[in-house]
Amino acid sequence: MRLLLVEDDPRTADYIVRGLSEAGHACDLLRNGHDALVAATRDAYDVIVADRMVPGLDGLSMIKAVRAAGVTTPAIFLTSIGGVDDRVEGLEAGGDDYLVKPFAFSELLARINALGRRPAAQEQKTSLRVADLEMDLIMRRVTRQGQVIDLQPREFSLLEVLMRGEGRVITRTMLLERVWDFHFDPKTSVVETHISRLRAKVDRPFEVPLIHTVRNTGYSLHAQG
Question: How many CB atoms lie within 10 A of CB 76?
Answer without folding.
Answer: 22
